[in-house]
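Lab meeting, item 3. Inverse folding demo.
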């Protein structure tokens, strides 16, 4: 189970980084206010927040000692 959580959060990090990159690219091209400071900093903040939460949870899982039922995974 522990291994599946680690892999799941790694996929979440990959998925969110693709979404952040793609969204910022498209928004910068289409939305005029995204070229202003509030749009740039807002999207950066959301991306950093999601990345931080995912990395924190991933590291917590990695640092935990495996339970008896997880040792086989």
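The presenter then showed the designed sequence:
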């Amino acid at each position: 189970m522990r291994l599946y959580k680690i892999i799941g959060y790694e996929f979440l990090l990959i998925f969110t980084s693709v979404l952040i990159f793609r969204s910022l690219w498209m928004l910068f091209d289409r939305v005029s206010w995204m070229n202003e400071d509030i749009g740039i900093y807002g999207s950066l903040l959301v991306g950093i927040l999601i990345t931080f939460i995912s990395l924190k949870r991933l590291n917590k899982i990695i640092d935990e000692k495996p339970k008896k039922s997880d040792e086989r995974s």
